Amino acid sequence: MRQFPGGDSPARPPSFLRKHCNMMTSIASSIRMLLVTSGILALGGLLGVIARDMQLRNIAIVGYVGVFTVAAVMLASLFHRAAPQEPLP
Q: What is the pTM of this model?
């Protein structure tokens, strides 16, 4: 097997990329958690329709306006930071 400078093998990315990959994974898991939270709050707001209670319906507004907006901004940041793949033919 060919050795790379610094002793890294071809199966593992170099150490400077491992930190970047770990950061991207933590951002992705945070985005996933925010999207699930947003969905749960939005679905929870449907209880307000059934109960005819506007205060319960406001839970949905917090879900799809507040939490989803933060998740969308983080998702855009993640897409911007991601390295481009091979160009399509």
A: 0.66
